[in-house]
What does this fold into?
Amino acid sequence: MTTLLIITLIFIFSAVLISIALNSAKQTQVSEKQIHATNLAEIAVMYFQEYALSQIDVAENQVKAYQTTNPKATSEQIIQFFCTKLQLSNLATVPITTDRSFSAKISNVTINKSDCNELLVRFVSEGIFNGFTKKIEGSFIIKNNSITAEGSGISTVFPKIPSNFKTNCNSFDNCFGTNNVVVSGNAKIDKKDTTTMNGLYINGSLDMSGTHSDLVIPKGNFYVNGATTIGNQSTITVGAGNAYFKNITGSSNAEILINGDAYIYGDVTNFKTNSGNQLFVNITGTVYVSEKSDLPANYRNYCDRSKSRGICASNYKYIKDAPATNPDIAMPGKLEADWSLDEPSFEIEYK
It folds into this structure.
């Protein structure tokens, strides 16, 4: 009886030990799969990082080609161009090994391009080993380290339409009181009309030859990329901003009042004599003129505030001597394109 009892107990404990051994073997297999899958996911993260660096180089080379074909492109245009060209694809197959038991992929790649100086990239890395999957969520920032060369000089060409002038107008009546208006082509303000806008770019001539025609720019800059004709007792008022003209032809008792600086790229008629009713251009700041103008040398003879005639300003200079701080006339410096993956921003989270 003792022998049978011992044998029975041995069988019972053997079954328990065998069960424990089998469970331990299964757990070991699961742990091995988990470790392998995690390693594969981590390898895919490193691969995607190198892939991102290569794509940054590709986009930078496209930027350099763009700069060559568009030498007058602004820094903002170049930065936006890099934004559009940078592409990071989902990598369904990360090259690791030919063994089908091992595989890895990168998915859910997104680039937040709301700020092209700091592009936030998010992705998911998956390692797969014998049907077991391990996921890692990652993110990093691609930073703009580009440098713009300073002291690039002043352009003596009439300014282009500023990037923030986006309201197109076919008729002044439809844009009364609006901001940063662009008129494509010639513009006319009829007799006894008063037109008011905050910022105006006329990409053509301005005809105000009618009597008592008034144009008011309470704030913002004013541009006329063509001839300006202003009639008897008509006025142009720029309340808080700069004004840019080409040729100006004025009538008796006509007035142009600018509370800022004025840039005249052509010539002005009807103001160089000291008798009779003349055009009056009154500028609180500096008037900048082309090198062909004789205004700086003779300004004392061309201003008579007491009789509201001539061109009166606080100072008279050539456009080439204007400060480079004015973005309208500053020539864009060359942007040394340099974007990089910000290593401290690299983060991963195991799922």
About this structure: The CA atoms of residues 286 and 309 lie 17 Å apart. The first strand starts at residue 102 and ends at 112. The chain has three helices and 25 strands. The chain has a mean pLDDT of 84.
